[in-house]
Amino acid sequence: MNTNLKKTSHVNHHHDAKVNGSILAPVTVIGLGAMGSKLARTFVNNGHVTTVWNRTPEKAAELVGLGASGATEIADAIAASPILIICVLDYDAARHILEPMREKLSGKVVVNLTTGTPEEARTMGTWIRNHGAEYLDGGIMAVPSLIATPHAVILYSGSQTAYETYKQVLERLGTSHYLGSDPALAPLNDLALLSGMYGMFGGFIHAVALAGSEGTKAEDFTTTLLMPFLQAMISTMPEMAKQIDTGDYSAKDASLAMQAAHDTIGEVSRVQGVSAETFAPIFELMKRRVEEGYGGDDFASVIELIRKRPSS
Ligand SMILES: NC(=O)c1ccc[n+]([C@@H]2O[C@H](COP(=O)([O-])OP(=O)(O)OC[C@H]3O[C@@H](n4cnc5c(N)ncnc54)[C@H](OP(=O)(O)O)[C@@H]3O)[C@@H](O)[C@H]2O)c1
Question: 189-305 in CATH: which number?
Fold first, then answer.
């Protein structure tokens, strides 16, 4: 019974799918690795006419079984839809696939969800535009199992028209953020978020190692103490961000001079037999900022030691 219902709605979806840019626009997915096949499956599950292509064609079989249309030739995959979503290993692979198809790209929207550098995104954007297509670069901040949930965040930059036309289609994949017309912005912000994550993970392993030096179990410490503490600390970030934007770092709660007066964390770590090498670089920066005369500032002023100074 359910199967019949599903089939009926599927047919209707196919009928609706004629309108370009509508929520049910036909979609082509190029690259069916772990990520690409999850993207394609999401479009199929949402009733999009979905065409798929992969260098190794066998990987399309499962998706074809679910209702996707498997293109043998890349040219057919490109011709099938107004929007092409490409998710392959790297930009070299993406370029290798698209280069021979350059005459077929005119009028298309190319959404490149392959991970790369800001420079690669800019170069790809220029190349795509030069062949008469609109370009959107995207950074997927999620693993395949999160795709199609709100927890999958995808950053986009490039053609605003393309983004607005296909926003509803792209939002099938998760929560999307459009960052601006320069294609470099998505990969740059992707890396910035990962940098924030690794900083936090570095703090996490040090904290667990320090508490664990007297036998505290990582799991208890993490869920009972560390996570609530970090959540409270995260709530101070908007104020720090405001200080960075305004350049007014005057300390309200805790001055750098007070925080960097003693390397208690480093010293106690060493006494406990724990390496402080994830914490040490941050402490060095705090000390340097105090030595340079900014002891009255809040922690956020440490950014002045690492950021690119605006040219004036
Ligand atoms: N998986 C994740 O958790 C995750 C998260 C965020 C972002 N990403 C990004 O998503 C992209 C794809 O990741 P993935 O996990 O799907 O990787 P994957 O499972 O290793 O799949 C790689 C894909 O790239 C294709 N490919 C590689 N070299 C190629 C070439 N020279 N020509 C044509 N196709 C080529 C492969 O085709 P074959 O099947 O023929 O080898 C396959 O479709 C990467 O840029 C990755 O950084 C992945």
Answer: 1.10.1040.10
Closest ligand 1 atom, residue 88 Cα: 24
Spans of all domains in the chain: 2-180, 189-305
Q: What is the pLDDT of residue 15?
A: 39
Instruction: Check if the beta carbon of residue 49 is closer than 8 Å to that of residue 2.
Output: no
Architecture of domain 2-180: 3-Layer(aba) Sandwich (3.40)
Taking CA atoms only, the protein residue closest to ligand 1 atom 30 is: 93
Pick out the chain residues at pLDDT < 70. 1-22, 310-312
Stated length of the chain? 312
**What confidence tens digit (pLDDT) does each residue in 8-33 have?**
333 334 434 444 556 789 999 999 99
What is the number of the ligand 1 atom nearest to the C-alpha of 35? 16
Write down the pLDDT at residue 310. Answer: 63
- Pocket around ligand 1: residues whose beta carbon is below 6 Å from it? 31-36, 54-56, 59, 87-90, 93, 96-97, 114-115, 140, 143-144
| Buried-state track 115-136, b at ≥16 Cβ within 10 A, e below 16 | bbebebbbbbbebbbebebbbb
| pLDDT attached to residue 311 | 64
How is residue 96 written in tokens? Answer: 């290798």
